[in-house]
Specification:
globular; three-stranded antiparallel sheet; about 25% helix; alpha+beta; five-stranded antiparallel sheet
Length: about 170
């Protein structure tokens, strides 16, 4: 498959309320040799998107593509030999046509190019819809339970507000 020259994206040209959000066709840049190109099927919208849109978290430059959480199908793989020979890259088993989720700023577009380290394989029994809805919360829950504090059998964990995505995932871990 040849890569597109343009992509439809959800962008902002200035910070503000919902009125600054636009769908626009923009040029699709040449992918970096260390990136995976994804045809986006679903995207997740989270509080962090509101923070970027309103300017609480500043973009490096405007206009900017919104979004930090997406899922879809791989249409092109990295070409960098160092990436292709990386043990973690190989272990992830990326392949054209494979389902993936991405956690990377600027991904609410029909096609995206994302550095491979921010792209996660999605198992066959998980839909890209579910992957897009749970990537950010899943990575946050994982970080809390594996990196911030390594939860061990017998530990008692208090999770406040199990009503949101993060709390629901933490309650299931």
């Amino acid at each position: 498959m040849s890569l597109p020259t343009t992509t439809d994206a959800i962008i902002i040209q200035k910070t503000g309320g919902l009125e600054v959000v636009e769908k626009k066709t923009i040029p699709f840049p040449k992918p970096d040799p260390g990136s995976i190109v994804i045809k986006v099927e679903y995207l997740g919208i989270n509080f962090i998107d509101v923070y970027y849109r309103t300017g609480v978290y500043p973009f490096k430059k405007l206009p900017a593509v919104l979004g930090k959480e997406t899922a879809g199908t791989i249409v092109a793989l990295p070409t960098d030999e160092a990436v292709l020979n990386d043990d973690t890259y190989k272990k992830n088993g990326y392949k054209v046509g494979g389902k993936v989720a991405a956690d990377f700023l600027g991904t609410h577009a029909t096609y995206i190019s994302v550095p491979w380290k921010f792209v996660y394989p999605v198992p066959d029994n998980v839909s890209t819809r579910t992957a897009a809805a749970g990537t950010l919360q899943g990575l946050t829950a994982y970080t809390f339970f594996e990196e911030a504090y390594k939860v061990k059998k017998g530990d008692k964990i208090l999770v406040h507000t199990v009503a949101g995505g993060l709390g629901l995932l933490m309650a299931q871990l």
